[in-house]
Amino acid sequence: MQFIDLVTQKDRIRGAVMARLESIVDRAQFIMGPEVAELESKLAAYAGTKHCLSCSSGTDALLIALMAKGIGPGDAVLTTPFTFVATAEVVSLTGATPVFVDIDPDTFNIDPALLEKGVLEARARGLEPKALIPVDLFGLAADYTRLEAEALRLGLWILEDACQGFGGAQGGKKAGSFGLVGATSFFPAKPLGCWGDGGAIFTDNDELAALMVSVRVHGGGVDKYSNVRIGLNGRLDSMQAAVLLEKLEIFDEELMLRDRVAKAYSSSLGGRLKVPVVPDGYRSAWAQYSVLARDSSDREKLMGALQKEGIPSVIYYKIPLHLQEAYGDLGYKAGDFPVTEDMASRVFSLPMHPYLKEEEIEQVCSVLLA
Ligand SMILES: *Cc1c(COP(=O)(O)O)cnc(C)c1O
């Protein structure tokens, strides 16, 4: 059994993608070909934002947004410690300091009630709180209704990390479109992935969009050899755009197929494990289907039983960011974020992809329920 099956999907779209790739090879227009602009306009329409900029990865998408907003040394950016390292890493890359805020135990997402505490902690450390990066963890959008109200009150702007959330929605608004700016990733294992690295940035703000276009390619001004600010090489190439154009065609269908898998898991497993909560009005992109065991030895037992049957399962995330060696100099210690630490000790993720068969779902459930 595959944890994520990229082969079935590839076989489905192979002919159409190869035709597009051949046309790029024939034209030899590898960078900024017409596929890139076509993809950006389709993604903006999909997310419901005025602008979409494709870029080289989810990490660069987040970084470009922070750089364009001038985040740097002395600034604090609030975020969750229960995420992939890139969310906080980009803050450090700008010279600013990540300040962690604990999560909600039902959704694994940053807890809006704790933002004010984060702001006070940042100030106590001599930092100026500027921005907030909520993460749409495992595919479920964070609570933007409350986050946007709190951020406004506390004077923070929001960068949505939709690297796992793209395809999800809350109240008819798509993931990627929340806050001032949203970032997503097209790493192959994400719900919408390319055949390499890629990402995208979304905003309704014209001025910020123009700044991000400049930062994306070496801080260019009127052309790329007049450099008006520090930027990076953050483009998406034509071939990845071509792959994404074909994958976008089947994306909504794949999201429905993922939802079918999640519903089947939840109805079987709900009595034995804590299954994911999808609050009313939300639609998850199901980047991961993550459950909670009773404690870490229960998790070890269940993951061992799955492994014995050849069923892969993975722990996202075993070490929260505030306890990672790379963040040792921030001075956090075990016990600082009790909800995150509890989740990290019990969470694990089951095989999740659109092409998981009924028999496979039943097999996973029967091993876990044995
Ligand atoms: C994958 C991911 C990223 C980084 O995306 P890349 O395309 O791998 O650079 C950032 N944040 C979160 C939450 C992610 O899951």
TrEMBL record:
Record GO terms (molecular function): pyridoxal phosphate binding; transaminase activity
In-chain residues carrying the UniProt-annotated modification N6-(pyridoxal phosphate)lysine: 190
Catalytic residues identified in the record: 190 (proton acceptor)
Classification via InterPro entries: DegT/StrS_aminotransferase, PyrdxlP-dep_Trfase, PyrdxlP-dep_Trfase_major, PyrdxlP-dep_Trfase_small
Keywords: Pyridoxal phosphate
Coiled-coil stretches: none
GO biological process, one term: polysaccharide biosynthetic process
Pfam families (UniProt xref): DegT_DnrJ_EryC1
Family stated for the protein in its record: Belongs to the DegT/DnrJ/EryC1 family.
Name assigned to this protein: DegT/DnrJ/EryC1/StrS family protein
